[in-house]
């Protein structure tokens, strides 16, 4: 039980072992890699697009210019109305002159058509390109892709002006060039491969940089987490080293300032708590001597009470009761002071619990006032004096503040993980107010105004709880569904408290 004014250490918290997937390190690493991947892919895509456009544009301009120059030179030898033989000779000449470039040439003039020998193996000009070439006196081109292969198709109408051919008026003769772009495709594929090869090292470098940066960021965070756990364990003198001037340094400095203020406050509270404990112990000790004399005097006066009458008899009776009450309060203060000083120890003995509980009732003259269910044969190692205090306080409270019948039961708890014994005290009185249940075991707490002047010191249940906890057990209070209060004490079969050699 936590004593009033005592500053407990926080219970240690279990660290999660499965936080790596959602931890700050993983999120930083993922963010860096994602940004690097998007940057690398974006840069690679843009570079690839620009390079591809440049390569194809240069190739296209070169081919169109070569085709126009070759046609201009060849058509000078054609008659104004070429026949099939002239068309065949024209396309054969053009294809032969550019055999290394794998030119495939098609010529049309009215209903006449002529093609180089390799034209059948490639895709020819589309209908859209034919229509554009036949209606416009300019060169038209398009790229045609079939599977993994692409070709450049150029349509060039032959025009004339007067006796010579110019780019003015359509002559009716149209030439088409189909050039496979194998070298260009190979260059584009090389670009793709280069981008892919550059992306993987970029991602690896990004991951490495992310790990280094995450380490630098997480190092002060881990130090802060460790310092916080040490502070939770009661080490209020812990401090962090402040490095740099960034936000993490500000956080470390704020933690140090908070820790310093908290340490100062805790030190002052502990000093005041220790002083209060010493005061309670000293004053209780100092009161014992005069109380012993007062008790002796009240005993003498009590023997003379039958011969006294009136106010004198009432005064002697009041003095006797209040002296006894004060003596009990001083004894309880001395006992609670021993708990505060961690000087309370267990003197364990192997007892038959049923026999021990019956002895507690018999010593106080309660056997006829309490119903019992105490099976024999349940043994445990407990401190007989402290167990007597526990049971006497609970039964005494039930008799004073509860209603008859009061029942004391003993049972064996057969939990496989933690076997123990259960001692239960119940009554049939009005029960405990719900607002009072959480505070019953606090010092000097009384459940209602009617108990403020009772003979109880207000420390009985607090001492009871301390004795139970010293045994490694638990105690709790509740209201019975049918009315009345019930107090349950759980004690382990093997106590967890201190054990003095007997």
TrEMBL record:
HAMP domain boundaries: 215-267
Subcellular localization(s) per the UniProt record: Cell membrane
Entries under InterPro entries matching the protein: HAMP_dom, HATPase_C_sf, HATPase_dom, His_kinase_dom, HisK_dim/P_dom, HisK_dim/P_sf, Sig_transdc_His_kin-like_C, TCS_sensor_his_kinase
Protein name, UniProt field: histidine kinase
Keyword Transmembrane: yes
Molecular function GO labels: kinase activity
Entry superkingdom: Bacteria
KW Membrane (keyword) present: yes
EC number(s) given by UniProt: 2.7.13.3
PANTHER family: SENSOR HISTIDINE KINASE TRCS (PTHR45436:SF5), SENSOR HISTIDINE KINASE YKOH (PTHR45436)
Enzymatic reactions: ATP + protein L-histidine = ADP + protein N-phospho-L-histidine
Limits of the Histidine kinase domain: 282-495
